[in-house]
Amino acid sequence: MVRCRSVGSVADTALMADHHKGYSQPIGGVVAYLDHVSPSGVGYDIACGNKAVRTDLKLRDVQPRLHKILDRIQSEISFGIGRKNPDPVDHELFESETWRDVPELLSLKKLAYQQLGTVGAGNHFVDILVEPETEDIWVAVHFGSRGFGHKTATGFLNLAKNRPFDAKAPGENMDQPPTIIPARSPLGEAYIAAMKLAGRYAYAGRDIVTDQVLRILEARSTFEVHNHHNFAWREKIPTGDLAGQEAWVVRKGATPCFPGQLGFIGGSMGDISVIVRGKESAESREALYSTVHGAGRVMSRTQAAGKMNWRTKQRTGGKISRREMEEAVRRFGVELRGAGTDEAPMVYRKLETVLDAHRDTLEILHVLRPIGVVMAGEDEYDPYKD
Q1: Distance between CA 355 and CA 361 in Å, rounded?
Q2: What is the pLDDT of residues 55-87, one digit of tens each?
């Protein structure tokens, strides 16, 4: 974050309690720029976010058939990198003028169409949860703009470095300076338009998958929460010498948390998740009206799962075994489909700990416990870098 503060027209920064290292900008990091946007700050999974839905079902309605429900979710919804939706969804976002106004995006339109309504790999999930106090069943999903967002981010990172949009990007490291673009330049305006389209795409995808799960459950929604946590918003700086000035607020793995705003924050597959509501306080302003997006990793994916030889499909090293992960999840009362040991509960902080660090900025409205978690299989190659 010190490095981020030294590049471009930075007005303010904040780190959330779940922060850990990310490419160019910490995950759980927020940077406000007066005159720039940062495609490396928004990251490769543009508009990654969460949607949570309370259903009209109770635990007793779901528990006897949970096994079959999870089987259907795993078989009927596409999980994994590069997966295509077997039943492509036509959506009004494909009529957006942005496809024409930012011509580089036209080459990605077919991919976007094919992948709309698919979930992806890494830490992306579909959860079935219960609210213990009421026994209400909830559905939650976590993913972003899929290959469309990844290729859009890569393309604009290339353009910012004077490379062709579709060039093979050079290797990156966690400690390189952020890539910034003047927001009022033609390139900056094109990136902002493309980012907003990826945001619409991510929202549409999460809506589609949530609706699919509701159909599988034979349930309807009674309450919904939906947010991005990898995005740039035009907002007024809330505190300090520049208070009131407009800036591009880049949140990477940080949930917007304005007074009264609702958010869903997911823990690990062996931990609680919560619905929160932002509140006004001095600390809220210092946090740039942002909060955590999850519990936060305590070890890298490679540390947890080891290195994968993609030729032999064998992993070596790794601190967490499949057996350890499955036992931890089973103890918490969760039935699991897919997932790799890089997503095991022990590679994350406890969500309660990071929420407590933000207690002056939010109130917890609903505490949820997962009973079923579906993720991509552990051998899925994941090119998404954050």
Answers
A1: 10
A2: 999 999 999 999 999 999 999 998 866 666 767
Q: Which of 299, 336, 283, 340 is nearest to 66 (CA)?
A: 336
Q: Cα–Cα distance between 186 and 64 in angstroms, integer?
A: 57
CA atoms 312, 318, 324, 325: torsion sign = negative
Rounded Cα gap, residues 227 and 290, in angstroms = 12
Return the minimum-mean-pLDDT range out of 168-172, 248-252, 261-265. 168-172
**CA 189 to chain centroid:** 24
Output the six-digit token pair for 87: 């039943």
What's the fold here for domain 2-169+177-377? tRNA-splicing ligase RtcB (3.90.1860)
Q: Residue 121: which pLDDT band, with cuts at 50, 70 and 90?
A: confident
Q: How far apart are CA 118 and CA 143, in angstroms?
A: 9
Statement: residue 234 has pLDDT above 50: yes
CA distance 362 to 255: 12
Give SS3 for 350: coil
Contact in structure between 317 and 299 (CB atoms under 8 Å) = no
**Distance from C-alpha of 133 to C-alpha of 383, rounded to nearest angstrom:** 39
14 φ, ψ (degrees, to nearest 5): -155, 150
CA distances from 279 to 52, 146, 285, 362 (A): 20, 32, 10, 5
Contact by Cβ (8 Å): 378, 341:
yes
E strand intervals along 60-131: 125-131
Angle (CA) 349 352 353, round 5°: 55
Residue identified by tokens 């809330």 is 238
Beta-strand ranges (E) seen in the chain are: 10-20, 27-33, 36-37, 49-58, 125-131, 136-143, 181-182, 221-228, 230-236, 246-252, 254-256, 262-265, 273-278, 290-292, 307-309, 314-316, 335-339, 362-377
Mean pLDDT within 25-45? 97
Average pLDDT over residues 350-368: 97
Q: Of 85-99, 163-177, 309-323, which gets the smallest average pLDDT?
A: 309-323
Report pLDDT digits (tens) over 270-289.
Answer: 999 999 999 999 999 999 99
Model confidence at 88: pLDDT above 80: no
Instruction: Please provide the size of the chain in residues.
Output: 386
